[in-house]
Amino acid sequence: MKIPASTPLVPGEPAPWPAVARRADYVWWVVGTVCIGAFMGQVDASIAQLILPSLERDFQASLGSVAWVAVGYLLVMAAMLPVFGRWADLAGRKRLYCGGFLVFVLGSAGCGWAPDLSALIAARLVQALGGALLSANSVALIVAAAGPLRRGRALGIQSAAQALGLCVGPVLGGFLIDTLGWRWVFWINVPVGALGIFAGWIILPQTPQGPRVPFDWAGTFWLVPGLAALLLAVNEGGRKGFDSPWLWVPAALAVTFLTAFVRQERRTQYPLLNLSLARNPIFAAGCVAGLISYAILFGAFLLLPFLFSRVYHLPAWESGLRLAVIPVALALGAPVGGAWSDRRGSRGPTLTGMVGLGLGLVVLALSLNGSPEDLPWAMAGLVLLGAGQGFFIAPNNSSVLSAAGPSETGEAGGLVNLMRSLGMSLGVSLAAVFLGSHVASAVGTPASEHWIAGSRHACWVLAGLALAGWGLSWVRAGDPVRGKDGAERSGG
After folding, report:
1. The architecture CATH gives domain 13-215
2. How far apart are CA 433 and CA 474, in angstroms?
3. Which three-class secondary structure state does DSSP give residue 12?
């Protein structure tokens, strides 16, 4: 990757070390640096749920109180993703990415030293700001470095790093909690984050200077609380059901703030988010399909541990190993899907990925019946689920980013990651509602039958979402790809 000498650069960012920047494989050094943050973020996300029982015991707190360690992180991160994406377009992606590592490290250290639950939650919110800075910039950095010829493969490698983090997280977290205590779950981020700061400073390229325009603070004022209220409403629906009266207050606030945000964006000359992107069918279809894919994945992640524990009575370590099949298959499928999209466009691999997700859910719905003899079929369903997500996610992200202009890659990347956060919350909430509604009626019959019925119901609903995602991937026909000569052509 080489920025033309005539291109103005964002002031204040150091150039990469010449010994690194001159390398023929410099692009992959940039991708590898971004993958440090992708890996670390997913390790932290997958470990956070494991420490809640320890926090409940050590701080003598209720489950509802300690749940804010996870929920607060998700709310802040999702709310700040589009803001930091736009800010990076104006202030420099390299600076904000390295700053994200620094904030994440400081938040992690604060979590490790937290004297009480309130201090821990506050430190988690700081950590979430760092995570949002990393996530909002990661896709844009990779797209800018790889260019159209290698964009799919580069995003596929990033997806594989995220999958590896999801796979390593539960195993590493269980070991740390059992041997050193829950505080080491956060302290382990400090050396990894320090490595990320150093690598980012000497490897990442400087950011080309975009148009100098004012930052939309008024839009930020409406968007951040609106997204936080939306995520809070979705999580409340998962905990107490979507008919809960406690859901309506955050839902009403979300509608109020987000409506005001849309009105603000239509009035201002320099909006925080370019809402006209939503009129691009490739961009809109890709964003919604991405949300669906993560809803499916994390809905399954909620269901399966309960089934393995309550129905099959598997020990925790065996449940973790079986669940690791999903991210392993995802890690293997992601680079293949990315390379395929580079050659033929995103339509083929995204359609294939959604078929894999749908078939995986159908297999799970039919095989998770409480019989140990059918568990091998369930494992095959997990393989299909992980591989389908792997085939889908990198081509989908590539398609969405190709629909945005070069000056909008930061905010488009922030929206991609926002859709991921919304999809995760929606999937967990949907699965929790269907599972909880069946288990709550477990009177006079074995509870295992209700766990099975609730899981099957959720699997069929998620399979219906996969069908909708397949339809959205079908209409993306015509997204641009480039041949070996660099000429743009229509993808299939």
Report:
1. Up-down Bundle (1.20)
2. 30
3. coil
- Helix or strand run (H / E) with residue 165: helix 117-179
> Which of 403, 392, 391 lies closest to 479, judged by CA?
403
User: For the segment 258-308, what is each residue's pLDDT rounded down to a tens digit?
Assistant: 999 989 888 888 787 777 777 788 888 888 999 999 889 888 877 887 788
Instruction: Give the residue carrying structure tokens 């150091």.
Output: 14
pLDDT value of position 440: 56
- Look at residue 320 and tell me whether its pLDDT is greater than 80: no
Contact 119, 156 (CB under 8 A): no
Q: Integer distance in angstroms from the first to the last C-alpha of the chain?
A: 27
In eight-state DSSP terms, residue 25 is T
Helices (H) and strands (E) in the chain, counts: 18, 2
Token digits for 148? 């159209």
**What pLDDT does 439 receive?**
61
**Domain 279-478 in this protein, CATH class:** mainly alpha
| Inter-CA distances, 54 with 15, 57, 107, 270, 276, Å | 45, 5, 19, 47, 47
CB neighbour burial string for 58-74, b if at least 16 within 10 angstroms, e if fewer? ebebeeeebbbbbbbbb
Per-position DSSP letters for 80-130, written without gaps between them:
HHHHHHHHHHHH-HHHHHHHHHHHHHHHHHHHHH-SSHHHHHHHHHHHHHH
Distance CA 324, CA 311 (A): 19
Tell me if 378 sits within 8 A of 124, measured CB to CB: no
pTM to 2 decimals? 0.74
The Cα 458–Cα 299 span in angstroms is 8
Q: What is the 3-state secondary structure (H, E, C) of 177-208?
A: HHHCCCHHHHHCHHHHHHHHHHHHHHHCCCCE
CB 83 within 8 A of CB 224: yes
User: Distance (Å, rounded) from C-alpha 180 to C-alpha 176?
Assistant: 5
Rounded (5°) CA angle 115-116-119 = 90
For residues 183 and 1, the model is more confident at 183
CB 398 within 8 A of CB 147: no
What pLDDT score was predicted for residue 487?
Answer: 44
Q: How far apart are CA 473 and CA 351, in angstroms?
A: 6
Q: What is the pLDDT of residues 436-487, one digit of tens each?
A: 666 655 554 556 777 788 888 889 999 999 999 999 988 865 554 444 444 4
| CATH 1.20.1250.20 placement within the chain | 13-215, 279-478
